[in-house]
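Table S2 (continued). Query chain:
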Amino acid sequence: MQQLKSALEMPGSFGVPIIDDLQFAGNEGYSLLQSWQRYGSVFKMRILGQKCAVLIGAEANKLVLVEQAERLSSYLGWRYFVEPAFGKTLMIQDGQQHSTTRRLMMSAFHGAAITSYLETMQEIVQACLSAWANHGEMVLIDSLRKMTLLVGARLLLGVQAEKEIDEIEQLYNAQLQASLSLLRVNLPFTTFGKGQLARALLKHRLQAMITERRRNQNLQSSHDALGLFLAAIDSEDNALSLNQIMDEIIHLVNASHFTTAGMLSWAMFELAARADWRERLLEELEQVVKGELNIEHLRQLPQMTNFLKEIERLYPPTSLIIRGVVKEIEYAGYRIEPGWTIIISQFVTHRLPEIYTNPEQFDPNRFEIGREEDKKVSFSLLGFGGGAHVCIGREFALLEIKVFLATLLRHYNFDVTPKYSTLAPVLVPPKAQNQLRVRVTKK
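Corresponding output:
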């Protein structure tokens, strides 16, 4: 029998404290691609004083997200980054608490609820694109974030007034900066302190909205996530607490706001460079959509689905997944003990040549029936995570993205700069997306 090695014997380096932390945070984990190229599929590093084992590949993803999930903790992995800014939300809950919370939240993210969101999404998308067509050149990610925040504020928070949404946007920007801050000093003039104040203001606003809802509204007929959360009771009479609802809503709006805008920015970037894919997607839309766009149309767009999978592959909403080790696990001949942190990387997995042919090439056809490279080995495509913690808002995000692209392609022309040849391949998407500019004109 092969004797297991200590995780300390993994290739890699624990590096230089603070300096390596700043570099890792600055690249938002996308630098793991370079570490994989240097060390291989199993290596060690240190982040924020924590010993980390980085495990790369579909088998590692399956081990962490399913096979050994009960030995690992999302809370211990993510708490530093998530809890101070958003509370103990679904993302960082474990075990039974996670199962119960997710069950209570699902009513807002499947079936009838998803269908009911379509009309509002269409209204916001149409209004935004119409305004953009009269605006000239714009910063792409800023414009998309404004639009996705409008969607999130209306359908998750239930906020209607644009003035309120502008105020909420400022609070969310402060929260985002705080969650990325390494200096966690809660003083009014620090980035972290400003984020804490923003969170308190958001919760105060939400509490007032909830009080009003409970006084005046039949919650069972709600058409936004806030109302559905307030009404949710499972078969064991569990309900979400007021504090849990506020934390979940704040986190969900933040996630829908930033990650959806990021995927849309790269979808527009790739489409602007590829006349063949613009034509293919438009032809598919013209064949399927007769009259007004509806939810059934969006389920009959295999070319768009493949295109969006390729966006998810090359530009995943997050680059990595983190878990704390609660009970010892074994992988690739190493013993990883409690107290360690495990990192898996969807960004690196999505670029493994043993899974994806010519991985740096943009090729949505890799997902077509008969080829389906993502299904050769399970857990090969993880843009929205996987296992019990798969993103609860995945269908919401994909619906919004498809509504936007369908409207854009059918009714508008657009151009994105810098050109594709200047930026591709994009190895740190969060940094590169800030350079993108767009000009939209009506057909």
